[in-house]
Structure formats: C-alpha cells, structure tokens
Write a structure and sequence with these properties.
Length: 418
C-alpha cells in the first residue's frame, strides 16, 4: 500500500473487517475522495488493531474536511518543520508540539500543515516524522547564509519562506556573534533576525519595520535570547533601556492571541469577549487593559488592569485585575477554548465591591483614557487620581509603534561576559 511505510504479510486471521465495513460503522460511506484501489489494497494488509486505528483516522479527517495523506514513500521526502505561536497550534486541527515559550512547531507537507491523523494512516510515530522533517530542514539550510545589515545585525536570506523555522536550528545562527549574548526574533515566516546585546535597539527597529510591512502576516515579535544552550524570551533587568520595547513586543503577541480568540468566542455566544488593549503610564511603562461592561456575561482576559463600565456607558475607574479574587460574590469560571486564559463572569461588581479592589485610576481618568481625544492625541490624560498609584498611572492609549522613538539607535555600550 503506497500510504504505508512498510508492508505486512497477509494476516492469518479470518474475517477481518474491510475498510468499507469499518467506515459504515462510523457513519461513513466508502466513496471518500482518495480512497482508491491502491489505498484499499494496502489497508487489507493490516491487522485488526491497525485497521481500527486507520479507520478512526480516516473518519476524523473526513468529518473535519481534511484530505487523506499522500503515499508515505512520496511524502517522506517533502516534510519540513514550521514554527507558529502556541495559540495557533492549539486552535488549528493540525499536529503541533510546544518547543519554546509561546512557540510550537508543526510539520508541513508541500507547504501545508499535516494533521495528526496522517501519522496513524502512515503507521509512523510522531517523533520519527518530526526527526525526518528536521533532517530535511538541516539539508536545505546548508550552503546558505545570513546577510549583515547596515545596522550590524544579521537577517536570514534563505528565500524559501521557512526562515523562521531556522530558529529550531541554533547551530546556523548561534555562532554569528561569538563571545556575546545572542538575541533572535522571527516577526514573519520569511524573516529571522540575529543580534548581539549591544545592538538590541537595532533589532527592535528591524522588528518594527517588519510589523509595518503588510506584505505578509506577523508571526511573533517577542525578542528571544540564547542562554545556556536554551532559547527563551529575552529577560532584561533595570535599568536596561530595552525593557520597555520588549514588554511592548510581548504585549502585542498576547493581544494577537486574544484578538483571534475573541473572534471565535463571538460565534459561541457564551458571553461578551472583553477586548484587550494597552495603556501607557506617565513613566512610559505600558500595561494591558481590558474593558468590562455591565449588562452581559463577560469573558475577561488576564490583563494588568480592568476598566469597569456601567450599562449606560459611564467609566467607573481602572482597577488591578490581580485584586479581583477579593470579591467573594464574583467568581469566574475558566472558558474552555484554545489560547490564553479567560474567565467568564455572570455578575458585575457593585459600587461597594469596587471599593474593595485596588484602584489604579479614578473614573475621571478612566473616561479621559478611553475618550477619542486622548487616544488620538496619544498623550497622558489629565485628571485627579484618587491615590499616589493613580497619579503614577495617569495614562493614555498607547500609540501603534511598538518601539519608542527615543530608543532607536541608542547605544548600549560595551558588552561583557556578565
């Protein structure tokens, strides 16, 4: 059977169920596209347990509207890995495996993601298929190099649309800046950026340029750091000037996940998906903020701040989300969906209950933050906050640029082993 990696001798067992019989039990007719004579003949070589597993996989693919796999002897030569955000791996009906923080890897055949059911039909383990895909990626990466940009950082030049996947092959980029801390970014599938720590502002600028380029979709904009032979989101300590750009990049990735999630939740009609945005304090720090409006069950994301709004549209103030568990009457239940966590709340806090929460900004400041004028001007809103915390958090809606202009081109000085 061309769909399987190995052939079995005819089984001595008698009266094994045919593919047609197994599909009929599963509510399907054998006239499924792709079930040709070669497929059926190969199926007849399988033992009972393997037949059941393959039939389950065929039925699952059919019900999802996904195609049957190509023959293994053809497919095995065209497998490649792909990197995507974890939320996308969880959402889509394809095989995926988490690899780094907020990233997972999938397998492509002819440029399309492979469903996990294909492995059962091929009778090949997931590990073996992924290992083979990685071998192919290593092979097509040979004899190709990075381009040194005028800024001093390096950009991939593979011209096959799998540049971001090379983040899985550290041996092809972790020696570009010997003796220095190495940082990488994959803002798009066709872009892999590599930088030493001293050029992080230039890396942030390159990410910003990729964001503004609308020719292809954004992948992730978080900066990653190679530490002790491991890749993780760059962790920078005060007073490092790139802490805020990295914070904004991570917030953008989080908002992308929540926005995609909200689109699906709207179809489920189980509550109102609370939108997630970003506000900026007078000190330049950005905070994620969600708006919770009274009147409907709310699906609240894990934000830094919640802006409560009455049923008449009146802003009630900004409060730290972490203090929400103080309210015994208001208990959220986890929403069963892919991606970052949301809690569903049926009750809206009363005025007395809001007093129990930790206030970030008063209702007046809240009104100025969400007003079109404040958002359009992109400057700190003026108001009379209720506390020192509120005064420190007088904020405006953040601008679209993920990188503060005053950080572009900033020199970080010499880099040492520390």
């Amino acid at each position: 059977m061309p769909f399987f990696s190995r052939f079995f001798t005819g089984s001595k067992e008698q009266k094994l169920p045919s593919l047609a019989e197994l599909l009929e039990v599963r509510g399907l007719q054998p006239e499924i596209p792709g079930l040709d004579d070669a497929f059926i003949q190969g199926f007849d070589t399988l033992k009972a347990r393997e037949r059941e597993s393959a039939a389950d996989a065929i039925a699952s693919l059919f019900k999802q509207g996904l195609p049957l796999p190509p023959p293994w002897h053809d497919a095995q030569h065209e497998l490649l890995p792909q990197i995507v955000p974890t939320w996308q791996g969880e959402r889509d009906p394809y095989y995926y495996r988490p690899c780094f923080d907020n990233l997972c890897k999938r397998i492509l055949f002819a440029g399309e993601p492979v469903p996990p059911e294909w492995f059962k039909i091929w009778d090949i383990s997931e590990d073996d298929v992924m290992d083979l895909a990685m071998e192919h990626l290593e092979e097509v990466t040979k004899e190709k190099s990075f381009v040194r940009l005028s800024s001093g950082i390096y950009c991939s030049n593979f011209s096959d649309g799998l540049d971001a996947s090379r983040i899985l092959l550290p041996m092809c980029w972790n020696q570009l800046f010997l003796g220095q801390n190495t940082f990488v970014a994959i803002p798009k599938q066709n872009t892999l950026l590599v930088s030493p720590q001293v050029l992080l502002p230039k890396l942030a600028e390159a990410i910003g340029a990729a964001i503004n380029d609308t020719s292809s979709d954004i992948l992730v904009v978080t900066m990653y750091q190679w530490v002790d032979n491991k890749l993780m989101p760059a962790s920078l300590q005060d007073p490092h000037p790139m802490i805020q750009p990295q914070r904004e990049f991570r917030q953008m990735d989080l908002m992308a996940a929540y926005n995609a999630q909200a689109a699906e939740l709207a179809k489920m009609q189980i509550g109102e998906p609370c939108p997630l945005g970003v506000i900026r304090t007078q000190q330049g720090r950005t905070l994620t903020m969600t708006s919770w409006m009274e009147g409907k069950p709310a699906l609240v994301p894990d934000s830094d701040v919640i802006g409560f709004i009455s049923s008449t549209g009146r802003p009630l103030g900004l409060y730290w989300r972490q203090t929400l568990p103080r309210l015994q009457r208001i208990q959220g239940t986890p929403v069963e969906i892919w991606g970052p966590r949301r809690l569903r709340f049926e009750e809206f806090p009363s005025a007395d209950e809001l007093e129990e929460l930790e206030c970030l900004a008063s209702a007046d400041v809240h009104a100025q933050i969400i007003s079109p004028g404040a958002a359009q001007q992109g400057r700190p809103a003026q108001g009379r906050p209720q506390s020192e915390q509120s005064q420190a958090a007088s904020a405006s809606v953040s601008s679209n640029s993920p990188v503060p202009a005053h950080l572009r081109g900033l020199s970080l000085g010499s880099q040492n082993d520390d």
